[in-house]
Amino acid sequence: MAVRLRPQSIQGRFTLIAAIAALILFGLLGAGMAGTVRMKTQDGIFRDTQNAATDWAGSLDPATVPRTTHESGVTLLQLVDSHDRVKAATEAAKDLPPLSRLRPPETSRIKNEIVCARDEGCLLVTAVRVPPLSSRVLWAGEPHYVFAGKAEPPLLTAHRLELLTAVCVLLATGLTAGAAWWVVGRTLRPVAAIRARTAEISVSDLSLRVPEPPGDDEIAQLARTSNETLARLEQAVEQQRQFASLVSHELRSPVAALHAHLDEALMYPEDVDTRQTLQSALAATQRLTAIIDDILVLARMRTTKRSGPEPIDLNALVRTEAANCPHTPPVYTHLQDEITVMASRISLVRVVDNLLVNAQRHAESRVDVTTSRSGDQAVLTVADDGDGIAPEDRERVFEAFVRLDDGRRRDPGGSGLGLAICRAIASAHHGTLTIDDSPRGALFVLRLPLRKTKPILAQRLALRRDPAAQAR
């Protein structure tokens, strides 16, 4: 079974990354420092042995054997002939075999060598070839060599320097990993608090909020965004609850009426007019069907993505829907040329139809429909000459199941969802539906984004609107 090396937590992953990076960095630095220390130390020892060897070679006397040591601490000095026989040596080196078998040539009189024994450590040796003139005078031309040696410092023996460096690297890596663990843990502490509080939040109680840390870093922004999302979610759930309550209330009346008619028919079959009872039951079921259909439409508008938009000639659509309206009260259209919007035809037809039906229901003598442009928006207004809507009720009428007294009187069978559906459709098309001030009656204003046209097409449309420019 494969072993999972990747830590589960962000804190663990960041700590692992920091530890690996620190190990590589400190390892490279440690290796470089250890190599530099070893090289500098050996260079210093070789300078001492070279000075000691050259000084003694210059003071050689065949009649006397030098018995003094060099002031640098080099105590191992030997004079060796070409047959590896020790001819002279200091007190510390007289009982030792030749310190080295290194034989510098005449072209290069000085050579350095590190000689290591298995159990006695390493010796840094400098070999100096006695000048030819001295060899001819003193030893009949036989080559002689002076060896000067000094033991390697304890720090450099048995890889102590490398081991010490490795220990320091591991210690520094451990300290870095610990610091990374602490810093990341402290940074993520607010995240843990947010997670714990989020786990306590449920649909039954959305009033809780996650703690917001001070500052304006990413975690603080996350906490604020989470609280804003929770607030919107709480508002949406509350709206759904209110909507469910309103649906229950609206469905209760026709269901109760249907139940009463059927119950009466069962209890008093001889006294009940069967035809009238069935007609009343049918009317109740028709109202139920209308309410349920409107509820389904509104639910789909809120929860599903609208169908693909298509270019729609707003003026042609208004003419068609106005022609389908009853002739009393009459509908007058005032249309501006070339107004095209991108929308779902079925949805836009529903909006225009609902607005026209609503306007005819409340109009005294006429309904006026106007289309125009305002910047990059198409504007459709539907005005009636009825009693109008009070300013304090102009937003409330777009809520689900809200029906003013005048509306209940004129259409007692309405569901109260028509305007809510219209506004939902407008919002889904990135538009608005509002009620503006009017000298008389109600003025509904629908604004939708115009279809984006290419510059050449826009120029052609401008020429069509301006005959004088076309003549030029």
Automatic annotation (TrEMBL):
Catalytic activity from the UniProt record: ATP + protein L-histidine = ADP + protein N-phospho-L-histidine
Keyword field contains Lipoprotein: no
Keyword annotations from UniProtKB, A to Z: Kinase, Membrane, Phosphoprotein, Transferase, Transmembrane, Transmembrane helix, Two-component regulatory system
Membrane spanning stretches: 14-37, 163-184
EC number: 2.7.13.3
Compartment(s) where it occurs, according to its Swiss-Prot or TrEMBL record: Cell membrane
This protein's name: histidine kinase
The organism of origin for this protein: Sphaerisporangium krabiense
